Amino acid sequence: MNRRIGILGGTFNPVHIGHLTIAREAMKQFDLRQVVFVPTGMPPHKNPKTLAPREDRFNMIKVATRRHRGFEISRVELDREGYSYAFDTFTALKKEFGEEADLFYIMGLDSINEILSWKKPLELFKMCEFIVATRPGSRLRTFRRLFKFPPLQRFFDRIHIMELEMKISATELRKRLREGRTVGRRIPKSVLEYIREHGLYRD
Question: Which tens digit of pLDDT belongs to each residue from 34-51?
């Protein structure tokens, strides 16, 4: 049996409990050997002015995952110049892990709904399967309509839905941090200490 490896990408700005829960549940529900966190270097669809420095985002994941067996981090996007496209990332990861590894791209419903606007989306479907995290009761109308598009129909069995009872907004967390308000347990204690020590998300 091939190694099953989950890939969880994102800005992780900052990494929070929702990210860790998604990774943990994906490992459990889909029998993944490991989950690799891939922090984005320069995302094409985000305002770079809102991002903490890339090394800080990498280090926050490092302190958040150090006690979680099976969680790893990749610098594949951080160390690459230019925009971070999933197609380029998975091309590099397929080469790194080899043909004996089956890759599973872990993402949210909003991301999969926008996938046709991405670079070479049909080629991406050939390189990995998808684990899509949704909340119970999520409206899947756009998602279902998307896969009625003939070129995507043949890849529908490569999409797996994972329902999770969780909603955490990184934008709201950054706002609270800027204002000096509490974030409860939504950010791991080790990450919160790192944020304070390095003065991140202040005005």
Answer: 999 999 988 776 666 779
